[in-house]
Design a protein that fits this description.
Elements lengths: L4 E19 L5 E21 L4 E7 L9 H13 L4 E8 L9 H16 L6 H11 L5 H4 L3 E4 L4 E4 L6 E7 L6 H6 L9 H9 L11 E2 L2 H7 L2 H11 L5 E3 L6 E5 L2 H12 L5 E7 L7
Helix pairs in contact: 1-2, 1-3, 2-3
Length: 290
């Protein structure tokens, strides 16, 4: 028995750490990254139909409502892989900033895969869903996991991080968009070695703190063209953050706070500077939170 209507939330993510460890012959970069979902969400409403058509509509932020949208592509690929002949109408309420280093499009694609698999009583296995997700994009498999992960490869090899501390983050997205492909094309730096072993060891240390591992190799590229990123990092620290860093390829910047009260206070401080979109978000804890 199938479920004909379903609503799912798609969370944003932050890269607490992102180190580039290699480059493949196909041009993709290998990395070691700590990825954490945070409770900023897009909402996706799905309704099945018998006409075999995939329809998508978008509300909120301006994004393409066509076959280039990852939510649309996820639905198309799911139907093709599962052999199901139905159609689906997708309404995407977009809250996560676009091209902002927060993985919103990737999360939307993963959410559609998870939702459709649930609606049809799981015709696809977890490995099959992972394979479909990876075809959509390197970050998409992470959003199938539902919790903090250590990511390697191009981001598709994922190890859940048990006991990741629940923390509060203030995330600031300036009013500009950054292309991930452009950032990686312009990346020129000495590749990190020994990063995986270092992070595994660090995560097991009783004295581990989130602020102690904040680092992003992509910052050098993005800040060279968009110096506002360094300005935002300083503002977050001035507002009381234990540390601040750019997420992904940017331009979003986040600060780490010990409590919701401190995070809300920092947001109040930042609003007066009008830096763009400001979110207070919780991240970490268990899979059930997402």
């Amino acid at each position: 028995m199938k479920i004909t209507s379903y609503t799912i939330k798609a969370p944003a993510k932050i890269n607490v750490r992102l180190k580039v460890t290699g480059r493949r012959p196909d041009g993709y970069h290998e990395l070691v990254s700590i990825m954490v979902p945070v409770d900023i969400f897009d909402t996706i409403d799905l309704n099945l139909s018998s006409d075999r058509q995939i329809m998508i509509g978008c509300r909120g932020r301006e994004i393409p409502a066509d076959e280039t949208n990852l939510a649309y592509r996820a639905a198309r690929d799911f139907m093709s892989c599962s052999g199901i002949k139905d159609g689906v109408s997708i309404v995407l309420s977009k809250n996560i900033p676009v091209a902002a280093g927060l993985g919103g499009g990737s999360s939307d694609g993963a959410a559609v895969l998870l939702a459709l698999n649930h609606m049809y009583s799981n015709p696809l296995s977890e490995p099959e869903l992972h394979s479909l997700a990876l075809k959509l994009g390197a970050d998409v498999p992470f959003f199938l996991m539902g919790g903090p992960c250590l990511a390697t490869g191009i981001g598709e090899v994922l190890e859940p991080i048990p006991g990741w501390p629940e923390s509060w983050y203030v995330i600031v997205t300036p009013l500009l968009q950054v292309s991930t492909a452009w950032v990686y094309r312009n990346l020129k730096l000495q590749l990190t070695t020994g990063e995986y072993d270092y992070i595994v060891k660090t995560l097991k240390n009783d004295t581990f703190t989130i602020s102690g591992v904040l680092e992003n190799d992509l910052e050098t590229v993005t800040t060279a063209s968009f110096p506002i990123i360094n300005t935002l990092k300083k503002l977050l620290v001035d507002a009381g953050a234990e540390g601040a860093i750019m997420s992904g390829s940017g331009p979003s910047v986040f600060g780490v706070f010990a409590s919701q009260e401190k995070a809300e206070s920092a947001k109040t401080f930042l609003v007066s500077h009008n830096p763009g979109d400001i979110f207070v978000a919780r991240g970490g804890g268990g899979k059930e939170n997402y």
